[in-house]
Design goal:
Layout: H1 2-9, E1 22-26, E2 33-37, E3 46-50, E4 53-57, H2 60-65, H3 75-83, E5 99-100, E6 105-109, E7 115-119, H4 136-153, E8 161-164, H5 169-180, E9 187-193, H6 204-213, E10 217-223, H7 228-237, H8 248-258, E11 264-266, H9 271-275, H10 281-284, H11 292-299, H12 304-310, H13 321-331, H14 338-353, H15 355-364, E12 369-371, H16 377-385, H17 388-392, H18 398-404, H19 410-413, H20 423-426, H21 430-441, H22 443-448, H23 453-461, H24 474-487
Parallel strand pairs: 8-9, 8-11, 9-10, 11-12
Antiparallel strand pairs: 1-2, 2-6, 3-4, 3-5, 6-7
Helix pairs in contact: 4-16, 4-18, 7-8, 8-15, 11-13, 14-15, 21-24
Amino acid sequence: MILAGYHHWGDDVVDHLVGMFAFAVAERDSGRVVLARDRLGIKPLYLADVDGALRFASTLPALLAGGGVDTSIDPIALHHYLSLHAVVPAPRTILRGVHRLDAGTVLTVEPDGRRRTRRYWEARRERRDDLADLGPDEWRDAILASLRRAVERRLVADVPVGVLLSGGLDSSLIVGLLAEAGQTGLATFSIGFEAAGDLEGDEFRYSDVIAERFATDHHRLRIPTPELVPALRAAIGAMSEPMVSHDVVAFYLLSQAVSQHVKVVQSGQGADEVFAGYHWYPPMMDAAPPGADTYRAAFVDRTHEAMAALVEPTWLADHDATGDFIDAQFARGGASTPADRALRLDTEVMLVEDPVKRVDNMTMAWGLEARVPFLDHDLVELAGACPPELLVAQGGKGVLKEAARLVIPHDVIDRPKGYFPVPALTHLDGEVLDLVREALHAPEAKARGLFRPEAVDRLLADPNGGLTPLGGNPLWQIGLLELWLQHQGVR
């Protein structure tokens, strides 16, 4: 289909594609190569210049396997990794010699080596004249209709389509819309872990409500803590890049179980970034333009000064690279208010480089195709035009919650916000803590010398002494990076 479209439209074929894709087309007669990535970056495309040639692959480890790649750490990328909870904005990766094609971008490589990059889509956050007369009820109905189309588009498959059901609003709404579309006996899947400290390890009470309401073929997966470390090692091996989010091992294990039942699932990733589901969006409504300072205060894990106390001078960026990146993003046109600018940044960068990436990596590790209806570009464009006060209402996702009230039980909609909880990765203890300690004391870590020894010792002495503003464990952040680098054989 892509080749037929390319024959007709050339590289403008991307404007006619819907959904997730990353492709390369080599023109036989001209020698030109065209590479492209979908609008929301659901599918990855990695690049490396080696010995005068451009290599590309769908995973970073595939490029490393070819040899000759510069695997030294990029200090700017390390600054982002430690500031933005493992997010490294494209085109960088943690390694100097590997880059990513940005989402919504076409790269053309001519036979003589000349390159031309074209951004064909952006997540604009501005009001539109054609939607100016819509009131709250009309916005609710428009959002629901657009999401319904997005869910139905992702039903097209030669095999049954299941749902990863966390019990939250987003995946529950997908189940409700699939049931509304006539799907019976829908396979749904939830995962839970043992509690650690005072943290609960599952949200089955909510997923059970949805499974019962819509009579799904529901599967619960509960993981005992002794099984977590082997699964964690395997999940790290499946990562194209280091990912600190606690739910990555949950998605890995869930994908393993789900792949035994279905080969295609729908998932709720993206709704928080597109519909303002996080706690830092309401303060953005009152932020002084452009809003970058308010965003940094809520979102960034470490200041540049704190970075200097953790990272060895050799690997420390010579300026506040993350602060400058956020300032530049908030200074761009195409977003009307500070809240709009935050939503655009999270949709174009944080979403692409964190939840979308980890779901794609963990599902593909088991040959499972994950489809994400909340990242349908028509829906994202509609949400981008929605007045932010409707989005942030009701503590976030206000307009989506109102749409959901027409489909799913209210007690799931009005519940406290939750995540895939993996307590053992927030409260480090036992085998997981041992794994981190071994990685940070390994000869490879000492030879690499990324972090100041006294800072590492301080974190190991009090592994749960303090969390980042978004609830991340600082020790886990640096331990995971070393675990990933060592797994990849990077020295």
